[in-house]
Protein: SUOX oxidase
Amino acid sequence: LPVQSAITHPRPGAAVPAGELTVKGYAWSGGGREVVRVDVSLDGGQSWQVARLAGERPAPGRAWAWVLWELPVSVD
Structure:
């Protein structure tokens, strides 16, 4: 299973003020493979940014667990 991801903040359709915003979410993978990177696009796939993996990393042998990620962005 390729890496799957979901955005948890901001919520879909939310109005956000201009300035700095941290986009947050979680990612998981299958087959016992660890998530080592999450790429996020904020412009429909024209460009991508690498999110920071946050929180605790899965223990060895538990790579099937999900991981949190976050990406600070500037909003116009």
About this structure: The longest strand covers residues 19-28. Strands lie at 4-9, 19-28, 39-40, 49-50, 52-54, 67-75. The chain has no helices and six strands. The chain has a mean pLDDT of 87.
